[in-house]
């Protein structure tokens, strides 16, 4: 079964349920068992977490492999990969971070794929009943507090800024109204908890929680640049063959069905 980590050291899970945590500063460690499965650690942008877990589970059913999923903002994961974090595959929420991976010779170029097109969503606090639905309120965006991902760390934050620009809303004069989350997943958690009135989040998060229709509105594509999300096998992987097989699986029809069902589009 795929395991999940949030910015944690790499974890290997053996079949006898022993867990060994590897710190980045330990230079070398071998754990040898004759029947232990191969391991992969994949780093995924937060918006893709649920989907990545589904894909990992499906791949594990087809292969003798244990997959660890590490989630975070694309910017944070890129910095970790650059500094030697033990990731085998990196799923970014944009193309720019993968461009940088390629430019710095940190990835296997031929393995690069565009695995999904993200979709931005305007979401209302689900604990509050509004006289108007999210589609109507989106056109005004007059709220005391609104949250979205930090544009310096997360592509979905950049997309949210583009929306405000195209709606001619000057956020520089409304700083008290804006909350920056470390990633789009945290932005969703903040608005979903009722701690802010509204937020710009990933559609995948909304669909995962089955939010009522009146509390969210899918932002039309015309308001922001396409959120093309790329992935690549990292050059530091010690299991290149298996990592490449996972990338190939993500391109399969079965995987595409899972990706679409979670609120993404495909090229």
What is the overall silhouette? globular
Relative helix content:
25-40%
Do you know the CATH architecture of the largest domain? 3-Layer(aba) Sandwich
Q: What is the CATH class designation of the largest domain?
A: Alpha Beta
CATH homologous superfamily descriptor of the largest domain = Periplasmic binding protein-like II
Biggest sheet details = 6 strands, mixed
Folded structure, characterized:
This protein is of the alpha/beta class and 267 residues long. The chain has 2 domains: 3-117 and 228-261, D-Maltodextrin-Binding Protein, domain 2; 120-218, Periplasmic binding protein-like II (D-Maltodextrin-Binding Protein, domain 2). It is 31% helix and 24% strand. The strands form 3 sheets. Strands 1-5-4-6-13-7 form a 6-stranded mixed β-sheet. Strand 9, helix 5 (155-166) and strand 10 form a beta-alpha-beta unit. It starts with a strand and ends in a 6-residue tail after the last helix. The model is unreliable at 6-34 (pLDDT under 50).
List the SSEs and their pairings.
Elements lengths: L2 E4 L3 E4 L5 E4 L15 E8 L3 H14 L2 E8 L1 H9 L6 E3 L4 H8 L9 E6 L1 E5 L9 H5 L7 E4 L5 H12 L11 E4 L2 H9 L5 E5 H7 L6 E3 L8 E7 L6 H11 L2 H9 L6
Parallel strand pairs: 1-5, 4-5, 4-6, 9-10, 9-11
Antiparallel strand pairs: 2-3, 6-13, 7-13, 8-11, 8-12
């Amino acid at each position: 079964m795929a395991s999940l980590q949030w910015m944690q050291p790499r974890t290997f899970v053996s079949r006898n349920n022993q867990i060994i945590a590897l710190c980045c500063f330990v230079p070398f460690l071998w754990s040898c068992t004759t029947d232990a499965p191969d391991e992969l650690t994949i780093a995924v942008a937060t918006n893709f977490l649920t989907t990545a877990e589904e894909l990992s589970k499906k791949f594990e059913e087809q292969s003798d492999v244990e997959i660890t999923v590490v989630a975070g903002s694309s910017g944070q994961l890129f910095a970790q990969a650059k500094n030697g974090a033990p990731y085998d595959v990196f799923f970014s929420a944009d193309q720019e971070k993968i461009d940088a991976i390629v430019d710095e010779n940190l990835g296997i170029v031929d393995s690069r794929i565009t695995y999904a097109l993200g979709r931005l969503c305007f979401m209302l606090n689900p604990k509050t009943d509004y006289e108007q639905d999210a589609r109507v309120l989106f056109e005004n965006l007059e709220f005391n507090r609104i949250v979205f991902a930090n544009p310096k760390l997360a592509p979905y934050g950049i997309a949210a800024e583009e929306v405000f620009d195209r709606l001619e809303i000057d956020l520089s004069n409304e700083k008290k109204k804006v909350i920056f989350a470390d990633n789009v997943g945290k932005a969703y958690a903040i608005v979903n908890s009722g701690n802010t009135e509204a937020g710009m989040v990933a559609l995948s998060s909304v669909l995962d929680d089955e939010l009522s229709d009146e509390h969210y509105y899918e932002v039309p594509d015309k308001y922001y640049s396409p959120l093309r999300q790329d992935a690549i096998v990292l050059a530091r992987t010690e299991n290149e063959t298996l990592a490449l097989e996972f990338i190939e699986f993500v391109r399969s029809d079965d995987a595409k069905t899972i990706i679409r069902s979670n609120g993404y589009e495909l090229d």
